[in-house]
């Protein structure tokens, strides 16, 4: 990474921490309005979860065995319901046929 990239990443990291600490968005009585920088906002029409996941996780199906691919990215959502819906969508993309194991008990 170049110094400029590191500076941008550090500034973004600090901004995220300020959101988590409740220091951005004005008075917070349980709800706050936060202005996101345009370069981190994903605009979508229609199925917004599909749009966000396909932009953040390009070639998702080709990276299922690559842990670093998933560790280097994040999707922020405003509510637990949005989290559940996004999580369900992503898990649905992981097409695992499953495995059946036989258990034999010997006496």
UniProtKB/TrEMBL annotation:
<protein>
    <recommendedName>
        <fullName>ATP-dependent DNA helicase</fullName>
    </recommendedName>
</protein>
């Amino acid at each position: 990474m170049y110094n400029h990239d590191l500076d941008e990443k550090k500034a973004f990291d600090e901004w995220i921490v300020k959101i988590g600490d409740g220091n951005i968005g004005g008075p917070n009585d349980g709800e706050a309005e936060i202005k996101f920088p345009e370069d981190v906002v994903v605009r979508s029409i229609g199925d917004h979860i599909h749009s966000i996941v396909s932009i953040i996780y390009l070639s998702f199906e080709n990276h299922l065995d690559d842990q670093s691919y998933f560790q280097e990215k994040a999707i922020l959502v405003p509510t637990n319901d949005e989290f559940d819906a996004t999580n369900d969508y992503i898990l649905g993309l992981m097409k695992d046929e499953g495995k059946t194991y036989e258990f034999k008990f010997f006496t």
